[in-house]
Design brief:
Elements (H helix, E strand, L loop, with lengths): L6 E3 L12 E7 L6 H10 L10 E10 L2 E9 L14 H6 L2 E7 L3 H16 L9 E6 L11 H10 L3 E4 L7 H22 L4 H11 L7
Parallel strand pairs: 1-3, 2-4, 2-5, 5-6, 6-7
Antiparallel strand pairs: 3-4
The structure holds guanosine-5'-triphosphate (GTP).
Amino acid sequence: MIGQMVVQVKSNSNPCSKAMDGANVLLLGAENVGKSALTVRFLTRRFIGEYGDIESIYSHIDKIDGREISFNIWDSLYPQNCVTPESISDKQLQWADGVILVYSICDRASFDVVRQQVQLIRQSRKMSASAPMIIVGNKRDLQHQRAVSSEEGRLFALSADCSFFEISAAEAYHGVMLVFHELLELIQESRALKKGVIGIKGIVRTVSAVFGKKRVE
Ligand SMILES: Nc1nc2c(ncn2[C@@H]2O[C@H](COP(=O)(O)OP(=O)(O)OP(=O)(O)O)[C@@H](O)[C@H]2O)c(=O)[nH]1
């Protein structure tokens, strides 16, 4: 269970505090889908192959459009072979400003886990029902082992009001970067909406969502 796992806090980040100008990002998904690979790719731009089994929270300052943004990234461990309400802790949901749910395109069971986790989060009162979520199909380089089509992933994301990406953490940094930057943008829009301020991009997104044409990558 998550409560019994070691949580490493790096760079003096406090897992219970919200970032001032940035975002707390929670990575979820089944085991072996590449959550750590995505995190390490974003932090270091590298793919190192093997990552171990330690649950960690990383702090990372990124420069986006000349502004410094602080990311706190919780790389979770998937605790069980089946999803139960306990598999995502209240603490994780209260902490997170946005969630990245990762499955492997070669592993149908991992796609099912993401579907169940999206449902659990949407039903949870610990996180806002409109909290930004991105669904990521990882291991796109393994086309010959594909078990979940892009279309299926995209359609599910659309139905769950989530953004969608298919990437390969092994092959490239760019796709991984786009995932984190998109989530940051969604988090900032969601904050602006709560304050009653919304930019042009936010208006386009809202209008698109209302007319069923929400942008899905
Ligand atoms: N081919 C390929 N392998 C990948 C990719 N991303 C991760 N892997 C491999 O998949 C395995 C699992 O990656 P991890 O990042 O440890 O997966 P995880 O989801 O953090 O796994 P847990 O720690 O068990 O929760 C490792 O052997 C990685 O090298 C990818 O995009 N393509």
